[in-house]
Design brief:
Elements: H1 5-17, E1 24-26, E2 34-35, E3 37-40, H2 44-55, E4 60-63, H3 72-75, H4 78-96, H5 113-123, H6 125-137, E5 142-145, E6 150-153, E7 156-159, E8 162-166, E9 169-171, E10 175-177, E11 190-191, H7 193-199, E12 206-210, H8 214-225, E13 229-234, H9 249-261, E14 265-268, E15 271-277, E16 281-287, E17 293-297, E18 300-303, E19 307-309, H10 312-318, E20 341-343, H11 354-368, E21 382-385, E22 389-394, H12 397-403, E23 407-412, H13 433-438, E24 445-451, E25 457-464, H14 468-479, H15 486-490, H16 502-509
Parallel strand pairs: 2-8, 3-4, 3-9, 4-5, 9-20, 11-18, 12-13, 12-18, 13-14
Antiparallel strand pairs: 1-5, 6-7, 7-8, 10-19, 15-16, 16-17, 21-22, 22-25, 23-24, 24-25
Helix pairs in contact: 1-6, 2-11, 4-8
């Protein structure tokens, strides 16, 4: 069958609605093939890895329990988060400019979490339909969907009543939200990023977020922007959790300070004690850093405590090793301790981000097909959303000063005593021009960290809009063996007004033989 996108969408929705629906098979007709690899999981890592292997002349097979390819990202995770973050940005601007210029008076009753969830649910099938169609018709990858894989051994997997043989096994079964051990998490009104989009059935009015993860910050900023007053309860300082690295303190202060400026309550060093209610959440008991216990009234609790990989089945059958955080231990070739078994995506250490999933899947495939290739997933550009895009790569100022003899900082707004920087409308660019001319303290933050001896850029940090895409290129440039010098950066062609401003600022200093701060 050659289904169009509408037909794929209909098939996927029917399969999701019926737990007993039939598997979806895209298999060649030859008898008892031996695949170069079976990818257990068809998320970003499995789909990209299998496609790359097929393109190299190999024969991969994807098996996934869901009736679609692409995994949790378009279904429950990163796609809704980006939709909600875009809404948060728009709502934030509408609130700051309420009844000013051409903005109408802000009406909080029109901003609805539930409405945004319904908008996402109505549109999420299109990505699934396209990936199923593209993988079959253009990438020519075989797959078994809507059927859970059972691993028999490292060369044998069963699914949909069939047994599949392979020379290698690639594990990409994803991760699940972590629950903590406190009473009351079974009450109606407690959600995580999965159950939020699948089960929310009312409009929240007051939110308590448990955890200080990226998810906690990003979803919390969205909830609060809609008018749902939000408190974050975090044991650690925000942006100081294990999952985040190279977070510059000045950037952190700007981001977290901005969240507080918008009215969010952030309780750092605090511990949740219990979620309270009868059938429905009514409050959360929190032990503050001082030891005092308080009750926070709420009708909505959101869990932002991180995720843990789905490793139990592979551990039991294959004996793969995992670390203290439940991640599969894999080397830079994605190889586990079991020969011929690879692990990718959210299964392994490093960020639970799309780039790592896709690239780790491709790395596994290229090694299986005979290349000797490594992927260092411990160094990478990173980002999160509040009502801003927050992006960074490389060393912080503090890390650079610990490692280098001379560190040069180029920054906007500058920290100069008596300059009245809250009224300085810089940095400004597309997305912040209205702020720059009306509320300059909201126009953003940026910092470039430079090795004064070699003139190489070693870190870049940005809060604002529109600069995020540039950081994937900055990441490549500064991590090359030859690096990226202030002189090269200052000689690039910038687009006026480019959001990150690093080119212009570098050009102002690149002429000096002895670099100084700017």
């Amino acid at each position: 069958m050659h289904l169009n996108l509408g037909e794929w969408n209909e098939l996927i929705e029917r399969s999701l609605a019926d737990p007993d629906s039939e598997p979806i098979l895209n298999l060649e007709r030859d008898e008892d093939p031996v695949y170069d690899a079976v990818f257990v999981g068809g998320g970003a890592g499995g789909r990209f890895g299998a496609a790359y292997m097929k393109a190299m002349g190999g024969r991969p097979l994807i098996i996934d329990a869901w009736p679609f390819l692409g995994g949790s990202c378009p279904h429950q995770a990163c796609v809704p988060h980006h939709l909600f973050s875009e809404a948060a940005e728009e709502l934030d601007r509408a609130r700051w400019f309420s009844d000013e210029l051409f903005y109408p008076k802000f009406d909080a009753s029109r901003a609805s979490i539930l409405e945004m969830v319904k908008l996402f649910l109505a549109g999420r099938g299109s990505a699934h339909a396209f990936m199923n169609w593209q993988t079959k018709e253009q990438l020519e990858v075989e797959y078994v969907l809507n059927a859970r894989a059972t691993i028999i051994d490292k060369n044998t997997v069963q699914a949909a009543g069939k047994t599949f043989k392979a020379k290698n096994l690639v594990l990409g079964m994803g991760a699940r939200p972590i629950d903590i051990d406190i009473p009351g998490l079974d009450l109606h009104g407690v959600f995580d990023f999965v159950s939020l989009v699948e089960e929310l059935d009312y409009e929240p009015t007051r939110c308590v977020i448990i955890g200080g993860s990226k998810v906690a910050m990003e979803y919390g900023a969205f909830f609060h922007a809609t008018g749902c007053d939000t408190t974050i309860v975090s044991r650690s300082q925000l942006m100081r959790t294990k999952a985040l690295h190279h977070v510059d303190e000045d950037l952190r202060q700007y981001v977290v300070g901005g969240m507080r400026k918008r009215g969010m309550e952030i309780l750092e060093g605090a511990h949740p004690v219990s979620v309270n209610g009868d059938e429905r959440v009514r409050s959360v008991t929190v032990r503050l850093e001082s030891g005092e216990e308080i009750d926070i009234e709420t009708d909505f609790v959101f869990m932002g405590t991180g995720e843990r990989p789905n490793t139990a089945h592979a551990q039991d059958v294959l004996g793969i090793e995992v670390n203290d955080y439940g991640r599969v231990i894999a080397n830079k070739r994605m190889q586990t301790n079991v020969p011929g078994v690879y692990a990718i995506g959210d299964m392994i250490d490093g960020p639970m981000e799309m780039f790592k999933a896709r690239k780790s899947g491709v790395t596994a495939s290229r090694n299986i097909m005979g290349e000797d290739l490594e992927f260092d997933f411990s160094e990478y550009p990173d980002f999160l959303h509040t009502t801003y895009e927050v992006t960074w790569v490389g060393l912080t100022e503090e890390e650079a000063k610990a490692a280098l003899d001379e560190v040069i900082i180029i920054q906007m707004p500058p920290y100069v005593e008596g300059l009245d920087t809250p009224n300085l409308p810089l940095p400004c660019a597309e997305g912040t021009m209205l702020y720059a001319f009306s509320k300059p303290e909201l126009s953003g933050f940026q910092k470039l960290v430079i090795d004064g001896a070699t003139r190489k850029v070693v870190g870049a940090h940005h809060v604002g809009y529109g600069a995020k895409d540039a950081f994937q290129y900055l990441d490549y440039l500064i991590h090359r063996p030859e690096g990226l010098t202030i002189d090269t950066l200052g000689w690039m062609n910038e687009l006026f007004l480019n959001p990150e401003h690093f080119v212009q600022l570098s050009r102002l200093r690149a002429g000096k033989s002895k670099l100084i701060h700017l």
